Amino acid sequence: MPSHASSPDSAGSSGFATAAGALLLCRAEPDAVETVARLLHERMLLVEAGHGWSVLVPEGKPWLQGEQGGESVEPVDRVLTGWATALAVGSGWPVLALWWDGDRSGYTLAAGFRRTVGYEWLANGTPLGEDEAMRTFAARLGLDPVLDLQSLEALARPDTEADARARMRGLLAVLTRTGLALPPGLGPCEPADRLREVARVQQGVRQIEWPGWRDAVRAEFGAVEQGPLGPWVRGPRARALAAAQVAAGLPLAVWAVRRRSAGWAAAAALLLAQGAGGLAYDRTRARG
User: Which region holds residue 152: left if phi is over 0, alpha if psi is between -120 and 50, else beta?
Assistant: First the structure.
């Protein structure tokens, strides 16, 4: 199960809550992202972010729980890791979570059922990760193993003139070579309120909300009908994949409830919804 190294004291400070923010970069077009993102049960804004990329901006602050003045705080990186994992296992494209708080900034890359990979920096830019994470990051996104990797490895070396914001911008600069183009204002280390304001005025912005189980299943079936899943839509392999999603979702749901983790609860819910929907879809089509 996932772990988190931050201390409870730092996570519970009011400065943490005020400074925390996040973006979810999906390597897919908005039409593909919208269907899966609705299953997260979270209000988000969906915006196109270049050729073959979309960005999800949380409308709320899910790392805050409770009323103002008495809230508890869940580390933003743990929430975003749960969301990124849920989106990645429920789709065929990678999801990159960018997150920051008053002390740190970093990324988490999720791709299918593979273990997530991430890196982080202190606010002053001090690297805290391992070089292997950058190499895995480059490989999973299909980046140039020489030029792009050199740029990424530079972000993992000490640099007194580069703070966390500069490190994150350097990461995004590498991804522009894959077609990523975030709208102006949707950048790392911006306040969460500012990100929402910028996203709301973008052309073609979409509101992501939980549609209810009936509409969610109908939308999921429609996406399957139109998607390039081939032999995975029905038959033994489809049932095996759906069963694996359910099997992974159940213990994850128990773990999330015990830890009171909103992000991982969303991941468990999406896994269970995808698995149950896949089994139902296969059974329905088999009857037809």
Answer: alpha
